[in-house]
Each structure stands twice: as C-alpha cells, then as structure tokens.
Write the structure tokens for this entry.
Amino acid sequence: MRTSSPLAITSNPLNMTLVSNDPSWWPLIDFNLGTSYVTVASSTMLVYDWALMFGQELELVWKHDFSVMTVLYLCVRYGGISYSFITILGNFPSVSLTDLVSNIIFIAQSGISVVENAILGVIMIIRLHAMYQRSIIMLTFLVVVFLALMITNVVIVVIQNSHNSYEEFALSGTYQCVNMGVFDSARLVAATWILGSVWEVLALSLALRVAVKHICELQRFRSTGRTIGDCFTVLIKTHVLYFAFFAAVSCLIMGFMSPKISNSTSVGAKIYLGILQIFLPVQMFILGPRLILSIRQYHAKLVANSEAGTGITTIAFQDPTHESTGGDV
C-alpha cells in the first residue's frame, strides 16, 4: 500500500480527491513508484515459485488424501498469491482507487496477513505435536500459548485498523493512497511482531530440544537410525530456514518503525523497504508451504523405496522401537 507520507498533508474538508502538480510531492511520488516496482517483482517471484513447485504440489497435495494439512497448505499458498495481487492493486500508481476501495484493500491485506500467520502457527503446532510423539500435554501447552498470543494479536490489529483512514490523492498524474489517520500505530505494529517472535522462538526451541533427544537415541538404535535421522534432518532444516527469514523480517520491521526510515524518501529508505518487501512474502508464502511439502516429499520417497524392496520403513516422529507413518505432517 502507498501508506505513508513524509510530507505534511491537510485533509480535504469536502472529502474529495486532492489534485496537485506541486513539485513538493515529487519525493513521495518517486518513493511510492519505486515501492510499486518492488511489489510487482516480489509478486512475480511468488507466482514463479508456485509454477516451479506446481508439479510437486500436484503429486503431494492434489493427489494426496484430503486432510487438514491439505487445507492448510492450500490456504497458505493461494492466500499468498491473493495477497500479492491485492498489494499490486494498492500500489499501482496509474490506477485510480476511491477512498472506500483504498480502505478495503488495507483491511484485506491486514486480514489475510493475520489469517496466514494463524495458519502457519497451526502447521507448526501439528509438526511439533508429531515430533513429540503426539503428546497430549505438549499439544495442550502449544494450543494454549498460541491462542493467547493470537487473540492478543488480533485485538491489536483491530485497534490499529480502526484508527487508519486512507484517502486518494491525484499528484502529478499519479494516484497515491495516503493514510490520514493521526494515530501512531508504530508501537502496535512492533507489539504484533514481538508476540510473533515469542511464538517462533518457542517453537524453534522445542523442535531443537526433541531433535537433540533423538540424536542421542540414534546411538542406541542404529538399525533404524537412518530413517529417523533423515526425517528429523528434513524437519530441522525447513524449520531453521523458516525461522531465519522470520527473524530477518522481524528485525527489518522493527527497524522500519524508526521515524528516520519510515518518514524518509531517501534511496536508503527505498532499499530498506524493498528488502522487506522481498523477505516478507518469501518467509510467509514460499517457505511456509514448504513446511508441509518437504515432509510429504520425504514420506513419498520412503514409500517408493519401500515398494522397491529396499527394506526402509517409515518411523517418523515416533520412538525408535515403534513403527508408524508421519506422511501427513
């Protein structure tokens, strides 16, 4: 969205579109134009990744037995694509949007972001629940913590949206949607990402804890160690990569809260925001679906090897002395 303006703006009392060719607006126009280019680039990257992975998606999702994880995958993948197109519409300077449409786009972006983060949290809970041998105590703990953080996050987002008001300005032949709300939401935005960071650190710590435990167990169960070790390697690799991008996005957003960056139209601010616009969809909409695809791909490989007579069994997420399948994680 073309959401911020480093220049003072006076609201039109007649609530009509402001039309101006004043050169003082040019820094803002140039900044938002650069932002729109990066938005298109990040959306193109997202669609390219979808096309690149569609073969795996067809085999591992569409042809797979319908389950909760299937629904979660489709929501994350196609919700991300929807988010990218909505973002392009909100940042396209040659498209005129009414004040009402501008506000709807912002609310849709916020809503999709909240829902997508909730889905990613549920995926993480299911993975951890499986890694902890389907422990009811661990599941209860994860659900309670996640719900507490998620409800708080939703309340903060609702408060933030209630104080935002977007209006369209026609500036030097371009259309700019500017947030006219006087409420400073920087602290609320920071609070939502702090809550998210608490959850992600907890999830990573629990995953590493159980992984270390199983590494120790491998010393006693070498006969089945390869299967368990390979499975946990896939889980930890995807989890750590996802967390690394989340941590990077969180740091970038926290830095963007600084007035020196958020209220600037400098080249440095453009680059900073551009990096954030690339990292955010990668973390949520590219690495997020891979949390599911990676495990299903691993399980499919085990099934293929087993049918080929290699004698490899699926012993994912369970005690090494018991056999069970973990392909739906």
